[in-house]
Amino acid sequence: MRDAGAGQRVALLGGGGSPVGRELAEQLIARGIRVHSADARALRVRSVANHVVPDATDPGFLPAIARLVRRHLIDIVIPLNTVALQQVSAGRSLLGTDVDVVVPGAGPAAIMHDRLLVSAKLWSHGVTIPNFAVPSDLPDVDAALRLMAGEFVLRARFVTDRRTATLVRTSGDLDWSTLDDNSLVQQFVAGAAYAVIVHRPPNGGRRLTVVLEKTIRADGEVVTSRVAGDRRVEEVERVAQATVRALGLTGPAEVMLRSSSDGTPIVLDVTAGFGPHSPLVPELVDVVLESHAQHGNLTERLTDGGGGTGGSSLRHARGQR
User: pLDDT over 90 for what percent of the chain?
Assistant: First the structure.
């Protein structure tokens, strides 16, 4: 389906009122695409048509997206947070057959909001990840410190727009009695930090993998820059690609890793869709648009590759692979 005016493509950013949404909107507009944003928050970008809709957790979110698709002749929908991605993936048929959706399919999308399930899935597929558990697996902070080799990061188990974490090194750093299983305990990994932008085409098309390294300058500012060419970076790239395959993800994704003291890349977090560092790789937009222009609806072509998560999360925390 194309815009009735001049054959112009029309994109709808679901959950677009975010920093990534602003950057992506500007990149799409620069490529001659008309952009609409649907979010509980208005997207402050010139030339973007803003539509305030219920939050992605609300039952009214998906029907509102479907109405916007019909009303504004949208031909490509791009969810920009994990909950919106999950909703659009599961309810893809509600949007009609004439619209492309940039999602990996309902199976892979179903777990991406839950870092515990993502960790278990990666562990079951042999991807190297930090030791992990939920607070109910452990009696107290001292037990967590022992299991996590002396220090761990306490993170939100469920993905939100906020990416906060607390580093715990002593029993006095944390009151264990205040925690519930909305948190994830993850062993701290020191070493070089990377964000890898990946595009895995569902059914042919162009692949893309770009490795970004994060370094801290003397003044404390974090600098993110592209790196390529040596064996260390090639191994980071290989592990990122294995990660998206293990999760069954297609289309764009972002993998956060650290390189351990022996050089082993360890996966810390994964974002399905356009991640926080994707604006630094503008060619990702071109690859996604090219892929959809060639193949039409690219949603449920590849399904969840299986691999259970049976047993408690503590069992998965017994050691890294």
Answer: 69
List of residues 6+ apart from 221 with CB closer than 8 A? none
Give me the residue spans of the domains in the chain.
Answer: 10-101, 104-130+189-321, 132-187
Q: Residue 161 has what pLDDT?
A: 59
For residue 296, give the nearest of 119, 100, 116 by alpha carbon.
100
Are 101 and 75 contacting, i.e. CB atoms less than 8 angstroms apart?
A: no
Level-2 CATH architecture, domain 104-130+189-321: 2-Layer Sandwich (3.30)
pLDDT digits (tens, 9 = 90+) for 147-204: 999 999 999 999 875 667 899 999 999 999 999 999 999 999 999 999 999 999 887 7
Question: Under a CB-based contact definition with an 8 Å cutoff, are residues 164 and 223 in contact?
Answer: no
C-alpha Rg value of the chain to the nearest Å:
20
Classify domain 10-101 at the CATH topology level: Rossmann fold (3.40.50)
Rounded-to-integer distance, Cα 93 and Cα 91, Å:
6
Beta strands in 98-156 (DSSP E): 100-101, 132-133, 152-156
